[in-house]
Amino acid sequence: MLAFGHLTATASHRAAERTRAAADATPAVSVEGVSKCFRLPHQRYSTLKERALHPFASRTYDELRALEEVSFEVAQGEFFGIVGRNGSGKSTLLKCLAGIYGNDSGEVRVHGRLSPFIELGVGFNTDLTARDNVLINAIMLGLTRKQARERFDEIVDFAELGDFMDLKLKNYSSGMSVRLGFAVAVQADADVLLVDEVLAVGDAAFQQKCFDQFDRMKEEGRTILFVTHDMTAVRRFCDRAMLIEKGRVVNIGDPEDISREYGEINFGDIAHGERDDADLAPVRVLDAWCEDSAGERLVSQAQGERCRACMEVEFEAAVEDPSFAITFRNDVRHTIFVARSDRTGPSGRFAAAERAVIGFGFDNWLAPSRYTLTPSVATGAAGPASAAVARREDIGQLVVQASHWSGGVADLPVELEVRRT
Fold first, then answer.
1. What is the pLDDT at residue 106?
2. Does an H or E element contain 363, and which?
């Protein structure tokens, strides 16, 4: 087992410097007291005949308050994350910013040209070829005809769909359509970008291209509002982040702090039902991530490279020889790999108020996929059946990339030997 002291994320320092540099400038986005309510009627009419037959039917409705008094500012050139559970109001907020929804109260001010990446491929005509759709969609995003033609090859290269450009879009898979939509959308010459979960689909290689594109946008000084459930992406890209729950702002601050708070709202700080005395757990899990051999946090990694899975913990009381573990699960929630400390011997004694980062080093031969990391801590008897006193579900993530895949859950290196008889 590898154990080492508390780490300070250099990305957070760089983010803070960018935020301070932009603090004196006019905000790129300013939202003051925005509220949005939807009416959900109890009686729905699907035809004019139904309305004519029941003119006096009840017209009562329920109210769904999607946003309540939401206020925040985003500085020019800032990468601002918006996180929250499903139904918390994230997408509604972005649609209010984009002008798709009108807010019931409050004010939204955007300085500069805005481009929403809310639903990739909106405006695509499935009966036209991909070539025609690229040109039409690029013009819809504000490019001139000349600019659309000049950037056509760049769009096709990014989407990696050169052999399919003369195919009608109705024959495209959903993944191909998303690739094409994102490739067109990033060509918009906008100052402010609204991005809503566009990286939730697509294969690992394409997601990495999207991450690289975000890096380039940050270097260009564009302002980006990024809605996501991916806390690893929030920690990597965002200068600040905002957590909303039930339409209200819970907190705005450092991405590391917002990621932890998001995890606590989703899963609870201590796994419920694991032990009767879980509320008295002597240790808390703060974070989990993967890093390379140089200590840099990873979003994705090529297969076969050295990897270290890490978890940060804080002890509420003195603990003797706790057992640490990090569970890797794939997209379909199968447990693929568990790194455990109790196989390597005693972990030592930890004092109250002490923090530690526990690392598990391994050569990464996991199959290409997206993996989530669930760190846990157990005390008492060691072994697979030991009860966790602290666990945080899916708070870390790693995308593994490879040019080939054997079909198994791991692609362990092998040596071929052929014996002819």
1. 93
2. strand 355-363
Q: In this structure, is residue 156 part of a structural domain? A: yes
Length of the chain (residues): 421
What is Dmax (Cα atoms) for the chain? 89
| Pair 301, 248 in one domain | no
Domains contained in the chain, number:
2
What is the dihedral angle through the alpha carbons of 194, 196, 201, 205, rounded to the nearest 10 degrees? 40
- Kindly list the distances between the CA atom of residue 327 and the CA atoms of 136, 150, 314, 409, in Å, as whole numbers in the listed order: 46, 48, 19, 14
What is the residue-averaged pLDDT of the chain? 81
Nearest residue to 200 via CA among 91, 111, 56, 59: 91
Three-state DSSP at 275 gives: coil
Q: Residue 95: name the closest of 187, 197, 179, 176 by CA.
A: 197
The secondary structure of residue 298, as a DSSP letter, is -
Range of the domain at 10: 2-50+58-263
3-state secondary structure of 301: strand
The amino acid at residue 170 is K
Quick one: tokens of 306?
């050295």
pLDDT at res. 342: 86
Instruction: State how beta strands 2-4 and 396-401 pair.
Output: unpaired
Residue 406 belongs to some domain of the structure:
no
**Four-residue CA torsion sign, 275, 277, 278, 283:** negative
Rg (CA), the chain: 25
Q: Which of 220, 238, 219 is nearest to 228 (CA)?
A: 238
Residue 384: pLDDT over 90: no
Give yes or no for a contact between 329 and 371, defined as CB atoms under 8 angstroms apart: yes
Same domain (yes/no): 283, 214: no
CATH code for the domain in which residue 245 is found = 3.40.50.300
d(CA 64, CA 204): 36
Q: Which one, of 84, 50, 54, 51, lies nearest residue 70 by Cα?
A: 84
Using alpha carbons only, give the angle 32, 257, 277 rounded to the nearest 5 degrees: 125
Q: Which residues of 102-117 are buried (b: 16+ CB within 10 A; e: fewer)?
A: ebeebebebbeebbbb
How far apart CA 225 and CA 9 sit, in angstroms, is 22
142: left (phi over 0), alpha (psi -120 to 50) or beta: left
Q: Which range (76-80, 174-178, 205-209, 215-219) has the least confidence?
A: 205-209
Q: Which of 189-193, 286-290, 350-354, 377-381 has the weakest average pLDDT?
A: 377-381
Please name every residue paired with 312 in a beta bridge, in sequence order, or none if there are none. Answer: 287, 357
Q: Is there a contact between 81 and 241 (Cβ–Cβ < 8 Å)?
A: yes
Instruction: Give the pair of three-digit tokens for residue 66.
Output: 């999607």
